Amino acid sequence: MIRFRIGKITATLVEEMVDHSFNFLKFFPLATEEALAENLSWMTPGHYDAASGRLLLSMHSWLLDTGKHKILIDGCVGNGKDRPGRPDWCGLDTPFLDRLAAAGATPEEIDYVLCTHLHADHIGWNTRLVGGRWVPTFANAKYVFSRREHAFWEAKCAADAGKGGPHLIAYQDSVLPVIEAGQAMIVDDYAELAGCLTLEPAPGHTPGHVAIWIKSDDARAVLTGDIIHHPVQVRYPQWSCFGCIDPVQSAATRERVLQATCEHRALLLPGHFMAPHAGYIDEARNGLSLRWADPEA
Known about the structure:
Blueprint: E1 3-6, E2 9-19, H1 24-27, H2 33-43, E3 48-49, E4 54-55, E5 57-65, E6 70-73, H3 96-103, E7 112-114, E8 127-130, E9 133-136, E10 142-146, H4 147-159, H5 166-174, H6 176-180, E11 184-187, E12 191-193, E13 197-201, E14 210-216, E15 219-223, H7 232-235, H8 247-263, E16 267-269, E17 279-284, E18 287-292
Parallel strand pairs: 6-7, 7-10, 10-11, 15-16
Antiparallel strand pairs: 1-2, 2-5, 3-4, 5-6, 8-9, 12-13, 13-14, 14-15, 17-18
């Protein structure tokens, strides 16, 4: 079990799968063959598959245990979902809930589910199929959505009714059932939760994306969702991925969050980094560098 401590809080990784469907140079449109070659020595084999030219991206959630609350951050892809255009995300059948239990929580014990944004690979386990209907997986939880993020997808779903696409379909099967069940908690910018979390606006990848800052005792951490997908972006923060709605704003947000992570000596808990999954950001001669963190023994 991969677990990190932030003051009195523990953050445990709950793995779903490894995604290897994205070509590196297509995923990062600003990347070059030369830059890729310069970074092969540390990216392979753990973060890049040289044979296929594809990224390796971990699909995982973070389970936070504050001592008072159990909080799930981002719900991965989910089982049995239809995600057009993303074959690696379709019809999954993973033991995610068993892994969640091994990490320290049954679905009924989750108090809050926080979504950094509402893309399909971050909300799938919000719901599961029961009797032919998508129902909330975490029956006793409040699901926390950014008001700005929810408004964007609500409007897009209404405007593009009848159209496909993984994210619109995910909104319908993984967000709307939560709202209909009365379990949604739609919050404004800088909302605070559980006495230790702050949801800070981090737009660019999506309009209402948030960074989730943790503070416990003198320790800090930040859960970054898709602000940063891959450790190579620490070296090249200007590299936004092809899926960013506003690549320029995404890059500016990434630089700001990485700089704040460095200044606060905070633990970086990203949504897609491969093992060891978390680290610290240090000043380097030509920018910033990543120093991997050691999980608890």
